[in-house]
């Protein structure tokens, strides 16, 4: 099997450089990029900026090289900055792009780059066969192999899990100690300014707001005693009343807090639960709906991989071959069988799911506009963090 290069273009953006103020961040990354001119692809090679976890990414890209004969040069990011650092690097390099392909473990950075025309359209044949719900309307990226936003809980305890995300703010949750709920605090959540928690909170705020607007225009009751479509303020105030801990350690830390018994529930991603199970921890997860049964597009949020072609780079057969492999059923099959056990969502999803014995399913994932949320997520995330710290009265 041909090997990918670990030394030629295996680069990590400095966390210190990234965490500077926004006025300094792009120049710092640009300076870093200028020192890495040797990472430009040679003839027959393809540079992929990739935010998938390092170990899994190396296995996938090695399989890609084996299947296509193309040497793939990966550029990774630090765990701290992850996709955001690679997004900023593509922006800093826009006048002289070095990456051929951007492969992200989520969709928001990809959508922002596409909106700013920093990604070029993928081949028409690929777009035409891709499910409409999992592709860019302008054809600049596709989505595949998704994680899910889930609620983790102890599998060795009798716990009643709310059926919707909104219901975690219902006062009845904390009062239901006879069913294993309650505790002090009851819920753990990662800092909403980062990672998939950031996108999830932004999505909840957007779809609940749209539902309330629709209900108002239809002269329906919108106070929602059943917690169907709360405001972000009401929801977070409810979480605070039920006992919520904000953990700086991210989604994995929320799972650990559940496993240790510090909290009853942890808002996290499916792959973090699978990782905990692999360590032998008694952890399970549920997929709460965003809206009640019967509301189309009202399930939990999926967090897919996305891939696109960086604008400004020449069109080459090698690049098309690598992109086609990333978008292949084989790639989704390998990710589904990997420790992260992502859900296939591409055009061959049904077949791949059966072949890899998919670990979970979501027949009605949350429907939302990725491009719109990509623009608003930072603002909503900052608001959510303030609400979690101070509540709606002081936020």
TL;DR?
41% of the residues lie in helices and 14% in strands.
Written account of the structure:
This protein has 395 residues and is of the alpha/beta class. It folds into two domains: 15-140 and 304-361, Periplasmic binding protein-like II (D-Maltodextrin-Binding Protein, domain 2); 147-301 and 376-390, D-Maltodextrin-Binding Protein, domain 2. The protein is built from 15 helices and ten strands. It has helices spanning 15-18, 22-34, 54-68, 82-92, 108-115, 124-129, 171-175, 195-217, 232-242, 250-259, 270-278, 317-326, 329-337, 349-356, 370-390; strands spanning 45-50, 71-75, 101-104, 119-120, 142-154, 187-190, 244-247, 265-269, 283-286, 302-310. Helix 3 links the parallel strand 1 and strand 2 (71-75).
Break the fold down into its secondary structure elements and pairings:
Blueprint: H1 15-18, H2 22-34, E1 45-50, H3 54-68, E2 71-75, H4 82-92, E3 101-104, H5 108-115, E4 119-120, H6 124-129, E5 142-154, H7 171-175, E6 187-190, H8 195-217, H9 232-242, E7 244-247, H10 250-259, E8 265-269, H11 270-278, E9 283-286, E10 302-310, H12 317-326, H13 329-337, H14 349-356, H15 370-390
Parallel strand pairs: 1-2, 1-3, 6-7, 6-8
Antiparallel strand pairs: 3-10, 4-10, 5-8, 5-9, 5-10
Helix pairs in contact: 2-4, 3-12, 5-15, 8-15, 13-14
């Amino acid at each position: 099997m041909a090997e990918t290069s670990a030394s030629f273009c295996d680069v990590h953006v400095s966390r210190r450089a990234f965490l500077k103020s926004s006025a300094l961040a792009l120049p710092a990354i640009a300076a870093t990029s200028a020192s890495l001119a040797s990472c430009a692809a040679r003839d027959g090679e393809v540079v992929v900026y990739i935010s998938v976890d390092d170990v899994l990414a190396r296995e996938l890209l090695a399989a890609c090289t084996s299947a296509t004969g193309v040497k793939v040069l990966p550029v990774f990011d630090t765990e701290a900055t992850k996709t955001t650092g690679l997004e900023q690097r593509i922006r800093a390099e826009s006048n002289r792009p070095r990456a051929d392909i951007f492969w992200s473990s989520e969709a928001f950075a990809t959508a922002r780059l596409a909106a700013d025309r920093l990604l070029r359209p993928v081949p028409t044949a690929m777009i035409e066969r891709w499910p409409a719900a999992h592709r860019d309307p302008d054809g600049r990226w596709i989505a595949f192999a998704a994680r899910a936003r889930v609620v983790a809980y102890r599998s060795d305890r009798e716990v009643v899990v709310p059926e919707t995300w909104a219901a975690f703010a219902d006062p009845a949750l904390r009062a239901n100690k006879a069913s294993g709920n309650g505790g002090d605090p009851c819920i753990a959540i990662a800092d909403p300014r980062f990672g998939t928690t950031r996108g999830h909170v932004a999505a909840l705020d957007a779809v609940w707001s749209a539902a309330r607007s629709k209900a108002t225009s239809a002269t329906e009751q919108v106070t929602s005693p059943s917690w169907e479509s709360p405001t972000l303020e009401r929801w977070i105030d409810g979480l605070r009343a039920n006992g919520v801990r904000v953990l700086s350690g991210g989604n994995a830390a929320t799972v650990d807090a559940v496993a240790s018994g510090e909290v009853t529930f942890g808002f996290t991603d499916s792959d973090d639960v699978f990782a905990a199970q692999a360590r032998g921890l008694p952890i399970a997860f549920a997929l709460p709906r965003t809206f009640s049964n019967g509301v189309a597009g009202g399930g939990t949020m999926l967090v897919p991989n996305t891939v696109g072609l960086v604008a400004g780079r020449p069109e080459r057969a090698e690049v098309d071959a690598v992109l086609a492999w990333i978008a292949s059923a084989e790639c989704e099959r390998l990710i589904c069988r990997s420790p992260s056990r992502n859900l296939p969502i591409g055009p061959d999803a049904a077949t791949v799911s059966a072949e890899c014995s998919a670990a979970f399913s979501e027949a009605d994932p949350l429907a939302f506009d990725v491009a719109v949320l990509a623009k608003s997520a930072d603002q909503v995330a900052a608001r959510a963090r303030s609400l979690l710290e101070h509540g709606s009265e002081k936020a």
